[in-house]
Amino acid sequence: MAFWNRAPVDTSLPRDDRGSGSFDDYRFNLLPNKTRTTLRLANSTPHQEELQRIIDSGESELETAISRRTAEEERTDAPMDIRLFSGSRVTGVVGRIPRGLEPVIDEALGRLDGAGKKARIPASVRKTRSGWRVDLLIGRTR
């Protein structure tokens, strides 16, 4: 992996809660290379109770509940907090996009909107040694 393809590391978070993703997984226009491409959310540790509620509900079809960044959010480089649609309800915050990878999400939402689809990215919740983590199934937005 080339150094210019790495997202900046958010050292304010514990190593096991910084999320993951790489620009190597995307083409020049931020289109995912593969349908299996995922992006793991950062800062999920404080939201373990919310994630446990999602798992307990048994909902298998999870999607993001986010919108594209506004010019003000882009200018101030505000973190992109993520909520999920679980059934017919919107959850609380479950994590945020790892620093530097916000453009990937903006492009995916724009691609979905341009195709006339709901601007929602499929997601899954997985158990790790460090607790529950959320993976965005970004490859399915191709």
Please describe the topology of this protein.
Layout: E1 39-40, H1 48-57, E2 62-64, H2 71-76, E3 81-82, E4 84-86, E5 89-90, E6 95-96, H3 102-114, E7 122-128, E8 131-136
Antiparallel strand pairs: 1-8, 2-4, 2-7, 3-6, 4-5, 7-8
Written description of the protein model:
A 6-stranded antiparallel sheet has the order 1-8-7-2-4-5. Strands 3-6 form a two-stranded antiparallel ribbon. The protein has helices at residues 48-57, 71-76, 102-114; strands spanning 39-40, 62-64, 81-82, 84-86, 89-90, 95-96, 122-128, 131-136. With 142 residues, it is α+β, with helices and mostly antiparallel strands. It is built from 3 helices and 8 strands; from the N terminus they run E-H-E-H-E-E-E-E-H-E-E. The model has no long low-confidence stretch (mean pLDDT 88). The radius of gyration is 14 Å and the shape is globular. It starts with 38 loop residues before the first strand and ends in a 6-residue tail after the last strand. The longest helix has 13 residues, at 102-114.
